[in-house]
Amino acid sequence: MPDFAFEDKYADLVVGIDEAGRGPWAGPVIAGAVVFLNRNENKELLLNLNDSKKLSAKKRDKLYSLLKEEQAKGNISIGIGEATSQEIDDLNILQATFLAMKRAYQNLDVKPKHALIDGNQIPKNFPCSAQCIVKGDALSMSISAASIVAKVYRDNLMQNLAEEYPFYGFEKNAGYGTKLHIDGLKKCGICPEHRKSYKPIQNFLK
């Protein structure tokens, strides 16, 4: 379970950063950035935070709501960063992810001096000092919270896109290459949200 051990190595504020949506064939990649401004947050939140992939959708939604409540109380700062499917095609998914992470940091209403970033690479020219942590979403409270923010925000966004492009099952698959998604591609072709640089989508373009 995550704790504040990594955050406690720093005397100043620390932001945790994680992304959602590197693998899907459609939609943006989203980064979440979360700063715990004090340790007075909701106990239910602190006891249940974990890697978003290890949580049910219902539990993620509940924790997301608690995070937003703590933000409203001034206990937490949350930033969201997005890189579009077009930017993914233009830059490649790794660089687009880094761009989303920088945007998430820039969208915080505080600017911590240190960042804990999930994974094994630090974006170049990141706006503050940064440490990457492999499987950080299961180790650091801030990264864990950021993983939930990014995942739930992106899932909600894909549900909205499903209303605009109802042929691919985005509300169920979040843009991943499920049978429903493939059937939609066979029937209707691609939409503007598809990542044309991804091989499965290139195959449909042929």
Quick structural summary:
With 206 residues, the protein is an alpha/beta fold. Helix content is 43%, strand content 16%.
Question: Can you give keywords for this protein?
Answer:
single chain; 206 residues; alpha/beta; Nucleotidyltransferase, domain 5; 5-stranded mixed beta sheet; 8 helices; 5 strands; 43% helix; globular
Blueprint (SSEs and pairs):
Elements: E1 14-20, E2 29-36, H1 43-48, H2 57-73, E3 76-83, H3 85-91, H4 93-106, E4 114-118, E5 129-133, H5 141-164, H6 170-173, H7 179-188, H8 199-205
Parallel strand pairs: 1-4, 4-5
Antiparallel strand pairs: 1-2, 2-3
Helix pairs in contact: 2-5, 3-4
Overall geometric form: globular
Helical element count? 8
**Percentage of residues in strands:** 15-25%
Tell me the major beta sheet. Answer: 5 strands, mixed
CATH superfamily: Ribonuclease H-like superfamily/Ribonuclease H
Domain module count? 1
- Write the CATH architecture name: 2-Layer Sandwich
- From the alpha carbons, calculate the radius of gyration and give it in angstroms: 17 Å
List segments where confidence is low: pLDDT < 50 over at least 5 consecutive residues.
none
The string of secondary-structure elements, in order, is: EEHHEHHEEHHHH
Give the termini distance in whole angstroms: 46 Å
Total strand segments: 5
CATH class term: Alpha Beta
- What quaternary form is this? single chain
Which structural class do the helices and strands define?
A: alpha/beta
CATH topology: Nucleotidyltransferase, domain 5
